[in-house]
Amino acid sequence: MNSLKDSIYASPVGEVGAFKFDETVASVFPDMIQRSVPGYNAIISAIGLLAGRFAREHSVCYDLGCSLGAATLSMRHQIEAKDCRIIAVDNSPAMVTGFQQALQKDQATVAVDVVCADIRELAIENASVVVLNFTLQFIPLEDRLDFLQKIYRGLLPGGILILSEKLKFDDDRQQELQTQMHHAFKKAQGYSDLEISRKRTALENVLIAETCIQHQNRLLQVGFSSAEVWFQYFNFASMIALK
C-alpha cells in the first residue's frame, strides 16, 4: 500500500465523526503516525532491538494492534532465535490488507502470521515478546486489566511486554503543557490548527489515555515484576514490563 499525505482533517466542512481505522486512515497511516507521535521511529527501532534480545527459540512474538506492521517488520529484521514466529493482529481489515501487501515485499525470513481479529479474544500462548504499540489506549478501560492478565499468563518466564501509550497527567499544569507541546510538534510537522482541532475531536472518547502510574500499577497488579518507562517524548511514552 502506497502511503499518501494525511489531509483527512484539513477541510472545515462537515461534522467530525469518531476516529476509525478504516481504508481512508490506512491509506495515510504511515504519514499520519510519523507526524502525530513524537519519537515514533525511535520506538519502532527499539522494539526490534528488544525483540532481538528477548525472542526465544520455539516461541511466539505478538504484535497486538499491528496496524500496517511497522513493529512486526522491525522485530522480523532483528530476531535470530530459531523457530521463532510472529503473530501480528489487528481488527481493521484495511490495515491487515495493507500489511499483507507490505509483507510480500519484505525479504526477512522470520515467519509472520497476519490475523484480522479482536485482540481481546486472541489466545496468547508460548510468548517471549508481546508488543502493544499505542493499542491499549483504544481498548475500553473496563477491559484493560483482564486483557493484560491474559497477556501475562501467556508470556514465558523472563518474557517482555512493550507497552507504548499516549499519557495524561494528574497535574493540570503538566497536562496543559504536554498537550500544548504535542500540538507544537504537530504544527512543526505541517499540520494546521484546524487539522489538530478536528483530529482531537475525532479521537475524543475513542482514545482514552491514562497516567504513567496507572499503567505501571496495573502491570504490577497482573504480576509483572517490573514496569519502567524507557522512552518519553512529551505525552507519549513506552514502557518495558518484565515477567
What does this structure look like?
With 243 residues, this protein is an alpha/beta fold. It has a domain of 165 residues: Vaccinia Virus protein VP39 (Rossmann fold, 3-Layer(aba) Sandwich). Helix content is 41%, strand content 21%. It has eight helices and seven strands, in the order H-H-E-H-E-H-E-E-H-E-H-H-H-E-E. A seven-stranded mixed β-sheet has the order 3-2-1-4-5-7-6, sandwiched between helices. Helix 5 links the parallel strand 4 and strand 5. Helix 2 crosses helix 3. The mean pLDDT is 96. Belongs to the class I-like SAM-binding methyltransferase superfamily. Cx-SAM synthase family.
Q: Secondary-structure map with pairings?
A:
Elements: H1 23-36, H2 40-54, E1 60-64, H3 70-76, E2 85-90, H4 93-103, E3 112-116, E4 127-133, H5 141-154, E5 155-166, H6 172-188, H7 193-203, H8 212-222, E6 226-233, E7 236-242
Helix pairs in contact: 2-3
CATH class of the domain at 40-168 and 207-242: Alpha Beta
**How many angstroms does the end-to-end distance come to?**
36 Å
Query: Which structural class best describes the helix and strand composition?
Result: alpha/beta
Strand content: 15-25%
Instruction: Sum up the overall morphology in one term.
Output: globular
Query: What order do the strands of the largest sheet run in, or round the barrel if closed?
Result: 3-2-1-4-5-7-6
Q: Determine the fraction of residues in helical runs and give it as a percent range.
A: 40-55%
Count the strands?
7
Note poorly predicted spans: none
Discrete helix count: 8
CATH architecture label name of the domain at 40-168 and 207-242: 3-Layer(aba) Sandwich
The CATH topology of the domain at 40-168 and 207-242 is given as Rossmann fold
- Rg from C-alpha positions? 18 Å
Give the CATH H-level superfamily of the domain at 40-168 and 207-242: Vaccinia Virus protein VP39
Average pLDDT confidence is 96
Q: What kind of sheet is the major sheet?
A: 7 strands, mixed
Order of helices and strands: HHEHEHEEHEHHHEE
EC number: 2.1.3.-
GO biological process, one term: tRNA wobble uridine modification
GO molecular function: carboxyl- or carbamoyltransferase activity; S-adenosyl-L-methionine binding; S-adenosylmethionine-dependent methyltransferase activity
Organism: Candidatus Methylobacter titanis
